[in-house]
Records
---
Amino acid sequence: MSAEEVSTSPKEYITHHLEHLQINLHNLKIMHENDDTTTFWILNIDSIFFSVVLGVFFLTLFRYVAKSATSGIPGKLQTIIELIINFVDKNVREIYHGKSSVIAPLALTIFVWVFLMNFMDILPIDLLPLIQEYFFSNLPSLRIVPSADVNITLSMAIGVFVLILFYNIKIKGIIGFSKELILKPFNHPVFIPINLILESVSLLSKPISLGLRLFGNMYAGELIFILIAGLLPWWSQWLLSVPWAIFHILVISLQAFLFMMLTIVYLSMASEEH
């Protein structure tokens, strides 16, 4: 979108930045988010693309540091990576009391990956869309913050939910897990239907709250940046965007930390034998 369009139509500017670059798998058609042909078989390919790129960047960076690590005085990059690993490991040891070689790497992956996805919100909102428009002018729109897409956050939450079910069944067995669903909180056969409803709601609320919390905070942060850029003159935007960006660094870090911590807590609860 050109500067002329931004200055004359802030509504179109804001709407444009809230649309995903989508592809309809049914007929392999690149489309707008608000097209009437929207069906279930649609992917937000911008969110998927940036999620994969950031994931590969995370793995490449940590692998490079691990292979080049030294036992002497570490460099700045190695020091930062070691601080992150020690921070995650400390939280896992304090919260998760079971025996699993998966929890710590999972927590590290979640924390760093979610932080990187959130950090995309700090980039100037027009930077990557303008680059995309320059090289691929036929593409309709582009959003660069994967965690501001509810499909991404709920997908990650569903992955955690599958692990919750896996550890519940692995540690307690199918019978033990079933007893938890039908005999808690009221340990009497009469209350089995009520127990099943209460425990099912409690179980399903975990991935829903996990995914929606991250999505809501990141979508709101992205929207504020868009409103600042779309409604204020260019020469005055820094008066609000810079303070908000500084504060938003705390928000994106906190959201990555909360997603990691809740994942550890949920898996710790699932790993309890009684």
Note: Residues 192-231 form the longest helix (40 residues).
---
Amino acid sequence: MSDALTAPQPIEVRKVPLHSVSDASELAKLIDDGILEADRVIAVIGKTEGNGGVNDYTRIIADRAFREVIAAKGTRSADEVKQIPIVWSGGTDGVISPHATIFATVPVDVALQTDEPRLTVGFAMSEPLLPEEIGYTPMISKVAAAVTEAMARAGITDPADVHYVQTKTPLLTIHTIRDAKSRGKSVWTEHTHESMDLSNGCTALGVAVALGEIEMPTDADVMHNRGLFSSVASCSSGVELDQAQVVVVGNARGIGGRYRIGHSVMNDALDADGIWSAIKDAGLELPDRPHHSDLKGRLVNVFLKCEVSRDGEVRGRRNAMLDDSDVHWHRQIKSCVGGVTAAVTGDPAVFVSVSAAHQGPEGGGPVAAIIDLGDEPSGYPAP
């Protein structure tokens, strides 16, 4: 694998819209305009417009479109392109707009030179995850090992410099449940939609273990002890793979570049201050009562996870999301938090993903923000 994928280097990061579920034209334009090199793309994190469920194949369609552009405009083999971590979160409920955030390395000699902390990215794939391991400590251990490997590739030695860990892991399907049973194994749940929350939550515990946020939990802690969580994990799951795909995003000194990342948490679904705290943590100076106009194109994107509080309340007020038989709470809370986030950023193209078990505090979730500290911001403010 080339050094452009494995060695810590300055990072260029851009957010682009998806004009349709199979559209990667804006990625192609970045490459054609010389902003990114196809062979230097190291990760993509995006939102697609499907249902966000087990059978959300918009993720696969978007994945194929982006990989085809990277392959066609670069020199990497099909196998090498296949290894690039491309993480799609399905479901753009409410005002959330389909988009992708693209990470690519840039040559050291053309990057902004600085000794200040700047954005760095590393990735890794875990050992294969068997269906009977999903929701149990073997999965936690495999994820933790992959996070440690990704940190090393990012050139990060101090876990405090990790601000965002995006993962994609397998969930349980009828096929994989049958596979486990055929080998005499049992699974944590036979409800495939529930397994999305399970896979995400168990993965988050692996992230937390790797970063020293918690000690190694027990099987009984998974999905039950919500006091155990990671403040930087953003975990997604689907049918696309059978391993944990891990992208670690943090800051490193001496790497150069114009971007920096910070993080915080939302304490509940309405906690706009948590989003502003992440932006400030990334290094952007803001007034005491900031408005999206204060961002001035410096915010590249924010990345959030959200979860319905299990007590069915927000700030002491009852809601009916958990009792709704028509629209699953996944879609309702995602729409709610997406609206809060877009009101902060002034841009509906925000990465808001649901199913945040063990990711941030109960009823809330983690927030990461990437800002542009270059002389002229390259971000994409709202039109």
Note: DSSP finds nine helices and 14 strands in the chain.
---
Amino acid sequence: MGIEEHLGDNIITASMDKIVSWGRKWSIWPATFGLACCAIEMMATASSRYDFDRLGLIFRSSPRQADLIIVSGRVAYKMAPMVKRIYDQMPNPKWVIAMGDCACSGGLFNVYSIVQGVDKIIPVDIYIPGCPPRPESLIYGIVKLQEKIGKGTIKKEAPPNVLK
């Protein structure tokens, strides 16, 4: 006489890691952080036409409530300490999406005042290229991030500090 006979087909077994990963996968809260023209496309993704809410994403205005930061647009060296501070204020686990060519690689702004990729400041999980990328691209990037979170394959390493 085991527990299976008592409960019948009404039992599900899973590891705690799988359950926690499933919960994290479907409850991502991104910080509202737009820097340039890509932020308009990020805002359009949250509108009723694309409906971010169906993926479990609710934009938060406080980094202490967010677990994802979508860096959309170019990052100037003057703004880089604030990006790093917001990232540091986010609770663990936290994820980063670089949205747009400027956030990914500096874009067409190959000048002394623009950081040539936000990965020089904070570790990036998903890169979304385009100038500016369409809302569908951001949704695809979120789905890929959800797949990584579900697998538990995200490893963090500290990027080199370019702010010194």
Note: DSSP finds six helices and four strands in the chain.
